[in-house]
Each structure stands twice: as C-alpha cells, then as structure tokens.
C-alpha cells in the first residue's frame, strides 16, 4: 500500500494542469471546514461576530471548555476514554475469537450463515430501534446511566465489522500453515494463539483503531443511556450546541478537542485504517 | 479447554448478540402492544394495542419523515458515488498526490459526526458563517441556510456529501488501482481514447466496488441521525425530519416507548425484506 503505483493513462499538458487544480480544489474543500473551525475556536466572541480574518488568537475558549466550573467537558473526556478503551478491548477479544471460530472450525452451514446474516441485519437497522428496549432493560436491571451499560452496547455495535474484518484477515493466512500445525499435533488453542493471531496482527490494529474511533464518536446510544455524570464527549457537544446557542467559540473548541483522538490515531495507523475501511470491498 | 475451544470461542459473541440484539427485538414485540411508564425506577406495563395503533393513525410527521429520508438517501448517495467515482478516476491519472489524497480523505470519516454537525452549524450561521460572509463579500444577500424550509434539506445533504464523498473515493480508488494495467494497455493499443477506456473498460470493471459503495452508503444514509440532530433537529417544521430523528422523538421526547417499538418493528421488517431482496448484491460480502 505504501509502494507508489504507476498512474493509469497519465494526463498530459493542459489536461494535467486542470487535473491538479481539480484535485487541489477537492482537498481544499475537505480541509477548509477544519481550518475554519480551528480558526473560530481561537477567536474572541467579538472577532467571531465581526467575521475578521485577522485577529489576536486566544486560548480562552479551550480553557473555558476544559476548566470552567460550569463545564463538565473534562469529565466527559474521561468518560469517553474509559468507554472507548474498555469497549475496544472487549470487542477485539470477543470478535477475534468469533471470527477465528467461524473461519477455522467446521461449523454447520446454518450456524455460519445465521451468525453472519444476523450481524448484517443488525448492522443495517438504525441503532435507535434498539435503544428503546435497551433503555427499559437497563432501567429494570439498575444499569441505566452507568458506563458499564454503555460499554456493552458499544461492544455489540462494533462486533459485526470486527468479526468481518478479522475473518478477512484470517483468510489471508496460507492454509498450509494450519495443516502443518494440525499434522504436528498442535492443539487448537495454541494454533490460534501462536500461529493465527500473530499473522493477523495488522487486522487487530485496524479493527482496534476503528472500534475505538466508532465508540469515541458514538452518539445516539450515549445520548439516551447516560445523564450528566456519565455523558460522553459527543453528548456534551450536542448539549453545547443546544444550550449555549451563543457561545460559538466554545462550541468550536469542543469540536476541535473531540477531533484530536481521530487525528492521533490516523497519524499512527493510517495504513491500517485505509486497509480496514476498504477491506472486503475490493475483493 | 483445548478440546472445547471450538465451542467457547464462538460463545461470547453469540451470548452478547442474544442478550443485546435478539432479546431486545423480541421485547419490541411486547412493547409494541403496551404502554410503559416508569415509577420509582420500575417499569409499569399495560396492554394497550388499540392505543398504539391510534397513535400511528394520528402520526402526521411520519409521512413527511419517510419522504425526507427517501429524498435524502437518493440525492446524497447518488451525488456521493458520482463525485467519488470522478475523483477516483482523476487521481488515478495523476502522477503525484495519491498519498496526500488518501490521507486527507480519511479525515472526515474519523471525526465525530456530532462535531461535524457542530462545525457546519457554525459555518451555516446566518450572521457570521463563512458561506454568508462569502455571499455578502460578492454583494449578494445572505441566505438562511438551516432556517428556511426550501433550503434546509439541501444544506443537510451538502454536509452529508462532505462527510462521505471521501469514503466512496477511498473504496473506488482502491478498486481503480486494482485494475490490471495490461487491460488498459490493450484497450489503448486498440486505439481507444481515454474517455472510452474510462466508460467502456474501467467502469464495468469497477461494478463490484460501485455496488458496495451504493449499498454501504445507502445503509448509512438511511441511518443518519447525529449530524441532522445537531444541525436542525428536523426543522424548520418537518423539512429535515428523518425517520431516525422521528423515532428518537417518539421514544425519548414524547416518551411513547410502546408506539416507538411499533415503528421500530415496522422499520426492521422493511430492512430485513430489503436485505433478502438484495441478497445477491450483498452475498459476496456476507461470506467474505
């Protein structure tokens, strides 16, 4: 993926110039909104209203969002980190085991089709159809408004893509390796642990990064299963946008802060993310 | 432990799905014929099927939400696939910039949709948003992007395009790069022009990836909630009300858990039917 591939029918002359201009336009229209919001987050309210392009940058919006006594945003960040880390870990363990099981062991056809078909249906329906029953069940169990309940829902939501991704990565393992392990009398658990898992490590990274980001970003479940103390970052951003209609600088700062994990993970694992996002679609 | 590895390896996933998807779906059946109220943390259920049907009959927003969702899905997905395809074909023909394009195009996919809604709400702001700033600068009247019934849905679709054209691009670009060079070379030697090659050779080869892009985007567009919740919450009036937003309001603003369950069931049944019909498109992926 990192090897530059030769371009197909390369553009020449004037067409080439137009081509690069169009690409520049496309990239600018993606980056533009980010740049504008970052700029807004550094402006005083008065500079926002006047629409000034030159202004004295200030960190006050960030310090208001993170440290002001009226704002819970720092606590929201902690909640989000806990939920995203815990759910990513659980999803990887449960999803990788399931994927390996479906890939390696001879399950009856109806088990495989049933399981994968169900993940597909669940992945397609709007989450909000199930948030209602979740809400009732968690209230009755006394788990409503706990981070644990939110973690469980995020694991469930991320399980389908994790299973699909890990199955795709396991399938790339040469079958001879499994046969060799079997012939050598390697017990199944050890074959999984010391042969399949290391070879599927790029898949674990891709799935882990995507699970973390999806959990960090998840809104509709978190909105309805949490309250003030357990709210995550997306819920807090929605509250900001609704309750403090006039604090635009802080709204911008909160949006920028919420984007940071995605940027960090992208810088670290870009190769894996692209592979994960497009995997299965190109085969 | 070792002998039973086959069984327990699949067990946690099955248990989780049973507890958090199968059981809730079964529970939707019970909820759909009930009225549920909470008193001191306990749910009180009463059997009221007629009441829930009367709510359905009196739900005037539902039709508007269904129509808006249909417009939103068709317009957004068509525009995204078209732009994503053109961009993928363009970048494939440039000698440089492939890596940069890939890096930049991942960004919108990873950012919290809520933050995207928040960003664009500020950019659409009537008084100081960047769009109206630009309009005023060239001497035009500012536009009430999110506040006017005729423009709000289009404004919401534009945000969705910004969010998802990059994703379609990534899928299609990966597929374009997977086209064997000798196929293109053979067409070129036979005297085909670049546009003929694009239309007659490349696009047919991209069909599987295009199908995936359409299906994926169709599903996700149908589920859209976060950005629109932030941008307009369905307003003004019902002009940007989507099915998912309506469902949220029935469940959690009007506290009609029973009627909400009825709507949910109808929605799930529709999607399951669509899934069975389109199984041929999805089959390669489900078994992938």
What do you see in this structure?
The complex is a heterodimer of chains A (283) and B (288). Chain A is globular and about 75 Å long. Chain A starts with 12 loop residues before the first helix and ends in a 5-residue tail after the last helix. Chain A has two domains: 13-62, no CATH class; 71-278, MetI-like (MetI-like fold, Orthogonal Bundle). Chain A is mostly helical and 283 residues long. Chain A has helices at residues 13-41, 45-50, 60-67, 73-104, 109-124, 128-141, 147-171, 175-183, 188-199, 201-217, 220-225, 233-243, 248-278. With 288 residues, chain B is mainly alpha-helical. Chain B has one domain: MetI-like fold (Orthogonal Bundle). Chain B has helices at 5-32, 49-57, 61-92, 98-110, 113-123, 130-137, 152-177, 181-189, 194-205, 207-223, 226-231, 243-253, 257-277, 279-286; strands at 34-39, 42-47. A two-stranded antiparallel ribbon of chain B has the order 1-2. In chain B, strand 1 (34-39) and strand 2 (42-47) form a beta hairpin. In chain B, helix 1 crosses helix 13 and helix 3 packs antiparallel against helix 10 (207-223). The longest helix of chain B is centred in the first third of the chain and has 32 residues, at 61-92. Chain B starts with a helix and ends with a helix. Chains A and B meet through helix 1, helix 2, helix 4, helix 5 and helix 6 of A and helix 1, helix 3, helix 4, helix 5 and helix 7 of B.
Tally of distinct domains of chain B: 1
Structural class of chain A: mainly alpha
CATH class of chain B: Mainly Alpha
Q: Given the C-alpha coordinates, what overall shape of chain B results?
A: globular
CATH level 4 superfamily of the largest domain in chain A: MetI-like
CATH superfamily of chain B: MetI-like
Q: How many angstroms does the end-to-end distance of chain B come to?
A: 29 Å
Helix and strand pattern of chain B: HEEHHHHHHHHHHHHH
What kind of sheet is the major sheet of chain B? 2 strands, antiparallel
């Amino acid at each position: 993926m990192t090897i530059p591939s030769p371009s197909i029918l390369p553009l020449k002359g004037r067409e080439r110039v137009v081509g690069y201009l169009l690409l520049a336009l496309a990239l600018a229209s993606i980056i533009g909104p980010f740049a504008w919001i970052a700029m807004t987050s550094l402006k005083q309210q008065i500079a926002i209203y006047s629409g000034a392009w030159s202004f004295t940058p200030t960190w006050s919006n960030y310090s208001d969002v993170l440290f002001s006594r009226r704002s819970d945003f720092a606590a929201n960040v902690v909640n989000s980190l806990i939920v995203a880390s815990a759910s990513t870990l659980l999803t990887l363990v449960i999803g990788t085991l399931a994927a390996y099981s479906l890939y390696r062991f001879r399950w009856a056809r109806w088990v495989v089709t049933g399981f994968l078909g169900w993940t597909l249906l669940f992945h397609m329906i709007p989450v909000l159809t199930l948030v209602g029953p979740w809400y009732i069940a968690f209230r009755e169990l006394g788990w409503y408004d706990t981070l644990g309940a939110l973690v469980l829902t995020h694991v469930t939501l991320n399980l389908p893509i994790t299973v699909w991704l890990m199955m795709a990565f396991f399938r790339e393992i040469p079958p001879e390796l499994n046969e060799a392990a079997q012939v050598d009398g390697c017990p199944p658990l050890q074959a999984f642990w010391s042969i399949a898992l290391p070879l599927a490590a790029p898949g674990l990274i891709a799935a882990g990064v995507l699970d973390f980001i999806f959990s960090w970003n998840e809104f509709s479940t978190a909105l309805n299963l949490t309250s003030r103390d357990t709210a995550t970052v997306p819920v807090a951003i929605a509250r900001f946008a609704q309750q403090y209609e006039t604090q635009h600088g802080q709204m911008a700062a909160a949006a920028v802060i919420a984007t940071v994990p995605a940027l960090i993970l992208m810088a670290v694992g870009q190769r894996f993310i692209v592979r994960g996002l497009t995997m299965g679609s190109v085969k | 432990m070792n002998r039973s590895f086959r069984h327990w390896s699949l067990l946690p996933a099955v248990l989780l799905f049973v507890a958090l998807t199968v059981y809730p779906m079964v529970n939707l059946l019970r909820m759909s014929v009930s009225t549920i109220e909470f008193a001191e943390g306990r749910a009180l259920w009463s059997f009221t099927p007629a009441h829930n049907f009367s709510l359905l009959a009196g739900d005037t927003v539902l039709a508007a939400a269904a129509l808006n969702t249909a417009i939103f899905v068709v317009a957004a997905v068509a525009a995204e696939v078209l732009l994503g395809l053109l961009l993928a074909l363009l970048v494939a023909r440039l000698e440089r910039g492939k890596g940069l394009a890939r890096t930049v195009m991942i960004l919108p996919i990873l950012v919290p949709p809520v933050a995207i809604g928040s960003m664009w709400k500020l950019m659409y702001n009537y008084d100081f948003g960047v769009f109206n700033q630009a309009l005023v600068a060239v001497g035009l009247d500012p536009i009430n992007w999110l506040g006017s019934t005729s423009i709000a849905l289009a404004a919401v679709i534009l945000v969705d395009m910004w969010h998802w054209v990059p994703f379609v691009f990534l899928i299609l670009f990966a597929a374009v790069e997977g086209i064997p060079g000798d196929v293109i070379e053979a067409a070129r030697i036979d005297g085909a022009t670049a546009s003929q090659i694009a239309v007659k050779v490349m696009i047919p080869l991209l069909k599987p990836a295009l199908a995936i892009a359409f299906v994926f985007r169709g599903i996700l567009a149908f589920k859209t909630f976060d950005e629109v919740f932030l941008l307009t919450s369905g307003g003004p009036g019902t002009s940007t009300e989507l099915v998912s937003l309506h469902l949220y309001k029935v469940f959690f603003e009007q506290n009609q858990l029973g009627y909400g369950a009825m709507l949910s069931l109808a929605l799930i049944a529709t999607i399951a039917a669509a899934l069975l019909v389109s199984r041929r498109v999805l089959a390669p992926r489900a078994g992938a």
